[in-house]
Specification:
The structure holds two protein chains of two kinds. By secondary structure, chain A is of the alpha+beta class. Classes of the chains: A alpha+beta, B alpha+beta.
């Protein structure tokens, strides 16, 4: 193989059988344009659906006239909320045990809400017919600013809920309020800062959609769907629509990016299913970009009031925070039931402190539903932003160096497993070593000297740090479920007679490379080359039950399942090998790929030989069945806690406020590294996410609730020109409770990078705080007297 | 109306509405689903094809406008001699994750290298700056194009032989 430049890593083992820089098994199809995404599905007789959406944020529906649409020659069905009501499907449960309108019946509650669904012969005709539907609305005053959602005179958005008199969804708290207040009362230094984590959107390049095919004869529904959680979706369709679960097959084929956007069930999916039932034909529905940005799962929208207490010497004592959480018109966030604010209560971050408390209030507004998406690890993103900004505010107050202040307060290696003040048990870490590594990689002292020189010349250079602790791998069944479904994951492994294997996963890839990584996990355990292991995922008819891929849970949960199931196969192989060599299995020792007789390494059977024998005529010990396969369900004993130290260098144009990210150094510790190439790719992508959120991305609204970010002309995703050449490093601290010590990494960089960038910009312009996105105009305002939170 | 477009070296004719977009013609009429569609506003670039050798966004071009022109899609990058170095570069350098932007990125890279066989990293970034990737953070795409520049066609090996091995 030809050598490559610039990989930044040590020479790799050639074709590793197990962990290592293995090139991806899925790439040959993708580089040929042979990926198979939902919109590539073509079925005979397939019809096309389109959604009519509300132009208003809050309005009563007076009437809907579908007659013109119905008389369009290419239209096969027009579905309204009233029609769905007859089927009991006008409303559906959300992943937060709220309800969401599939098609509006009484009111519309956000701009872009689904009002009607047209099924037609082709895509263009469906769109044409949508325009022919005449809806009369009676406009109502909308609630757009979450800070006014609980005003006494605020219109009640969810008057569909009996007895409701306000827009409050929940009040939730964590930590010890009294103890925290006591620490604050005696603290020498208290810094208070309001900050908004604005509403942003995952915006995967493939929008959401599906092809629903209800077989009118055997009653089986096949649904190709852009879902990150095919099994959970199947169960929910069974519960919602009353379809028998064994007659539902959800297929999640190649997915063009997810980032949390493809976790919920969207009204369009339900409408396509109904459309297929009504027309007895397959129905495809693919939303367009505006529909994706305006109606599907957004992320963040957390108004945070943070306080940090410390000694004058910079010892952090306590953190206190109040959050107003904007959940939109329906509480559609996806998170474990017990945690309405997700894992936000990991906001004490990476620091050893005495007390902490948070209180979160969730409210309805006339905006799109959602709240947990964009690679956020169930609100760890908001938590990390809060604490890492607060630490920088404290450094500013104390005139302390932000790196030294962090180093002084980090949890020490000897404190693990570390019980946090809000109830977590961090599994493992050597935080100071990771921070030191990032500072060394960046050349921190030299950067500070350069900054001083540039400042003397009037140039605005900033250096920003963040140290994050992630909370991933949800989760232990005793604590975590989604709509009653425990967050454990199944795995099945079968070794064929010739020693090739198939491993079936409950999780599903949206680009993370599961077909490669999971083959490597099994290869590491069994010594079967990864190219000999087929990874099957994303099809409920072919895979065991599990909750899917989000919250960086694939490797921590399903990856553990793959290792456990492979070890079961290895144990079985030991018995077979013993029978083959007529020795006791107890006398055998394992080395990758074979069992050998202790003390006689030449007396051995390879896993391939054992597989053939297991399927052959070999006499097996009493009670031992033939073949070589196993199943498992992995219930994680705890979450995993990947972490990292990030450093960002920016230059700010003093005349225009334009921020240029000059350097970004990221040192991640995700425990055992299965495929470093894939890990680095995951980190790169998350860092670009961070640049987007920190500098340009926001879903904003005017006061009438018009979404101002409904296309990529206005929702500004970074291009190759806005991001630097990332500089990565890593440390390895395996998780002690995970079968292979892996912690997950998919969201680390998205979680960890925004505060580093914002800290760098604040450092450059000498301002304590300005809210994201730090667009040139907002930076300029911050430099010249202050800038308001964006809306 | 009837249009004839030379797609990947072959004249392809179809009856289309005047408003029919080129991306729909390629995907729906010809079944060339390697060309993707992601935004409708010429921003994301997942629909990029080569139009008389130059990258264009096929979501903002009518099929009728392409009549009589040469269009190249991702499906034409591989030849009897093997993968295009750009395709190989994307595999070697982990230049793709979900694969959705990949066909458009590769075609832009091909056009760039045809014009300039030895671009700088900054020139590569500028060339792909009209296209979005949500997965890779772009660095490995830049490296992939760089790899292709360093390994012109004759040096390329078949992807299947190297996929699943170390870079």
């Amino acid at each position: 193989m030809t050598a490559v430049q610039e990989t930044g890593s040590a020479p790799a083992e050639e074709r590793p059988i197990g962990y290592g820089r293995l090139k991806r098994k899925e790439d040959p199809r993708f580089v040929r344009g042979k990926g198979h995404y939902v919109d590539d599905v073509q079925l005979p007789g397939m019809l096309h659906g389109a959604v009519l959406r509300s132009p208003l944020a809050h309005a009563r529906i007076v009437s809907i006239d579908t007659s013109a649409a119905e008389s369009h020659p290419k239209v096969r069905a027009v579905i309204t909320g009233a029609a769905l009501e007859g089927l009991g499907l006008a409303w559906m449960p959300t992943l937060s045990m709220d309800t969401q309108a599939v098609l509006a019946t009484d009111k519309v509650r956000f701009q872009g809400q689904e009002v009607a669904f047209v099924v037609a012969d082709d895509h263009y005709a469906a769109r044409d017919a949508v325009e022919l539907i005449d809806v009369e609305y009676e406009p109502l005053p909308p609630v757009i600013d979450a800070r006014h959602a609980l005003d006494a005179d605020a219109p009640v958005i969810r008057d569909d809920q009996e007895g409701r008199t306000d827009n409050r969804i929940f009040d939730w708290e964590a930590g010890d309020r009294t103890a925290t207040d006591e620490v604050f009362a005696r603290a020498e230094v208290v810094v208070v800062q309001d900050m908004l984590y604005p509403r942003v959107h995952p915006a995967p390049l493939e929008t959401c959609g599906c092809v629903a095919d209800m077989d009118p004869v055997d009653g089986k529904l096949t649904l190709w769907s852009t879902t990150q959680a095919p099994h959970a979706h199947r169960t929910l369709y069974a519960m919602v629509a009353g379809l028998p679960e064994h007659k539902i097959r959800v297929i999640s084929p190649d997915i063009g990016g997810g980032f949390g956007n493809k976790v919920p069930i969207y009204p369009g999916y339900v409408c396509a299913v109904v459309g297929s039932i009504l027309t007895k034909k397959p129905v495809k529905w693919m939303e367009d970009r505006s529909e994706n940005l305006m109606s599907t799962g957004f992320a963040r929208d957390y108004h945070m009031h943070g306080e940090i207490a410390a000694t004058r010497e910079g010892r952090i004592l306590a953190v206190r925070v109040k959050v107003l959480a904007d959940h939109g018109a329906f509480n559609g966030t996806a998170q474990p039931s017990k945690y309405p604010a997700g894992f936000f209560h990991v906001f004490t971050g990476s620091y050893d402190i005495e007390a902490a408390h948070c209180a979160v209030t969730g409210v309805y507004t006339d905006k799109a539903p959602g709240g947990v998406a964009y690679a956020c690890s169930f609100r760890v993103t908001e938590a990390v932003y809060l604490i890492e900004r607060l630490v920088d505010c404290l450094a500013d107050e104390l005139h302390a160096d932000p790196a030294e202040l962090r180093m002084k307060n980090l949890i020490r290696p000897d404190q693990f497993p570390y019980p946090s003040k809000t109830g977590w048990e961090y599994d493992s870490g050597d935080y100071p070593a990771t921070l030191r590594k990032a500072l060394d990689l960046a050349g921190y002292e030299a950067l500070r000297r350069e900054q001083a020189e540039r400042r003397a010349r009037g140039e605005l250079m900033g250096i920003g740090l963040s140290f994050f602790t992630e909370t991933v791998g949800a989760g232990p069944r005793r604590h975590m479920d989604i709509l009653g479904l425990g967050m454990a994951d199944g795995c099945e492994l079968r070794v064929h007679p010739t020693g090739k294997a198939v491993v079936r996963l409950s999780v599903q890839s949206q680009g993370q490379g599961h077909e490669t990584t999971f083959a490597q996990i099994v290869a590491e355990e069994l010594g079967i080359p990864p190219e000999d292991i087929e990874v099957v995922h994303g099809d409920t008819d072919q895979t065991p039950f599990g909750l899917g891929t989000y919250g960086s849970r694939s490797t921590p949960v399903s990856g553990a399942a793959a290792a456990v199931v492979a070890r079961k196969v290895r144990d079985k192989a030991r018995i077979v090998a013993g029978a083959m060599m007529e020795v006791s299995p107890d006398d055998l020792e394992w080395e990758k790929g074979r069992w050998f007789v202790r003390g006689d390494p030449t007396a051995a059977r390879t896993i391939q030989e054992i597989a053939l024998a297991a399927h052959g005529a070999l006499e097996l010990p009493e009670g031992v069945e033939g073949h070589l396969e196993a199943t498992t369900v992995y219930n994680p004993p705890n979450l995993t806690f990947p972490y990292g130290a990030y450093l960002c260098v920016v230059d700010v144009d003093p005349g225009t406020g334009v921020v240029k990210v000059r350097r970004f150094v990221a040192v991640d510790d995700c425990g055992t590294r299965i495929n470093p190439m894939i890990i680095e790719g995951q980190v790169h992508g998350g860092l670009a996410d961070g640049v987007g959120m920190a500098l340009s991305e926001i879903i904003s609204f005017d006061e009438d609730g018009n979404c101002l970010s409904g296309s990529f002309m206005d929702y500004l995703v970074p291009t190759a020109l806005e991001v630097p050449a990332w500089e990565l490093g890593h440390t390895v601290t395996p998780s002690p409770h995970h079968p292979i010590g892996a912690k997950g990494v998919g969201e680390s960089a998205t979680v960890g990078s925004p505060p580093a960038i914002v800290n760098a910009v604040m450092d450059a312009i000498g301002v304590r705080h300005a809210d994201m996105p730090l667009t040139p105009g907002r930076v300029w305002l911050a430099m010249h007297g202050g800038v308001e939170a964006p809306q | 109306m009837q249009v004839t477009i030379n797609v990947n070296g072959e004249d392809r004719t179809a009856e289309v509405e005047a408003r029919h977009l080129l991306v729909r013609f390629l995907r729906d009429d010809l079944g060339l689903t390697g060309t993707h569609w992601g935004c409708d506003t010429s921003n994301c670039g997942t629909c990029v094809v080569l139009f008389d050798g130059e990258p264009v966004k096929s979501c903002t071009m009518l099929a009728a406008m392409a009549a009589g022109h040469r269009v190249r899609t991702v499906e034409s990058l591989e030849t009897a001699d093997g993968l295009d170095p750009v395709q190989q570069g994307f595999i070697e350098q982990h230049g793709l994750q979900c694969g959705f932007c990949t066909p458009g990125m590769m075609l832009t890279a091909r056009a760039l290298l045809d014009r300039d066989p030895d671009p700088t990293d900054q020139e590569i970034r500028e060339a792909i700056s009209g296209q979005l990737c949500r997965c890779t953070g772009y660095l490995n795409i830049v490296r992939a194009v760089r790899w292709a520049a360093d390994h012109p066609a004759e040096a390329t090996v078949a992807a299947d032989a190297s996929a699943g091995s170390t870079p």
